[in-house]
Amino acid sequence: PVSKITEEDDIFAEVYLKKFFNLTEEKGPSARRGISPMSKKLSEMQKFFGLRITGTLDADTLEVMKKPRCGVPDEKVARFS
Amino acid sequence: TFGNNLKWNKKSLTYRIVNYTPDMPRAQVDDSISRAFQVWARVTQLTFRRLNSGTADIMISFGRRAHGDYYPFDGPGNTLAHAFAPSSGIGGDAHFDDDENFTFQSSRGFVLFLVAAHEFGHSLGLAHSNVPGALMYPLYSYRNPDTFVLPQDDVRGIQSLYGRNREDPMIDEPKPPITPDICDSSLELDAVTTMQGEMFFFKDGYVWHNNSQSNTPQKSLITSFWPGAPTSIDAAYENPMTDRVFFFKGSKVWAFSGNKAVQGYPKSLSEFGLPRFLRKIDAALHDAQTGKTFLFILGGRYYLTYDENRKTVESFSWVSQTFNGMSNKVTAAVQSRGSTFIYSGDYMYMYDLGSGRLLRVLKNTYLLGC
Question: Which single residue of A55, B219, B296, B325 could bond B283 by disulfide (Cβ 3.0 to 4.6 Å)?
């Protein structure tokens, strides 16, 4: 059976991407054109973990997001010094 | 690495355990932390000295939720710990989420040694690795701390920052595990099984799985899928009727329902209902049509059929008698979508189990989509 992605999952994914993949809030109408930042960050995350790159939230991606992990962001530009 | 040559400019570093988790005795925390540093010291020229007071380069603490660094923890699960890249002040410090259950070595909880060794990688200047199985991979997976060896990817990373340990150039060390290339057709698989519609391919400590969501096989540690499962298994099969997957290694059998260990396992082969003379199972497959399990034994040249419900062996034969053209030893076996695949070294033989007719001979990577 196809797992349903709930609104709660969407929010969870957004928080996850903000925390670990430096997803930033959309600003202004121009940001709404083209690929959404959420989709871009989902693709980045899927690429990092070797998942199928869809840019959308699916059950496999959500499963990886929910696994126990280290709290240091995976985004290469994130600096902790 | 974090880039920009972000590392300590000295080889001798200090650490201090600021407070303790109530999950474990203090001595176990001390030991876990000390061994976690040794993981990195062993392959570099770095040394670590413990301080009991004052400010150390790497300050280690346990805390819950907001704990004073603007990166609050999130309660049980998800984030387990974090650490700061090398610099003065908070740089190098490692924080552990005390809403988790840390353990000394049990898979029921998070092994502090493993989490700490990962965090100290950050403390020393390593970023996350995208190599599953590497210590610096961001997702936690259980592995036995007693037999832990720093994977090659992590060794390369830390030595790029601090060089090799000249006094101990790993001559006497066990070689760090090299991840097998599953698409190398000369690779002999340990075992193959299905589970809940997906196929799983085993080699050493790793498992690759195919599913409809992905074009390429996804690699994971066996223990991250099935905590407590053995590595380098001999054989595996799924019984879809009971929704269980069985792993054989040596004279023992493990059973899992999904990712959860079935109570009462591991069992000895004789407790499982197999003859006492058996020392190991070379390959296994479950025939959906008859509900019988084929267990390949005695160097993969013989097989027996086993009834899991009655826990009895029903028949015993030569492999070549039933499987036409199979003169070599069976190394792995699986039944998927009505076809029976028997692996022998580099090749995979596709059979119609009803008639025993050989349908195709394929490279052993065929089902992997390499």
Answer: B296
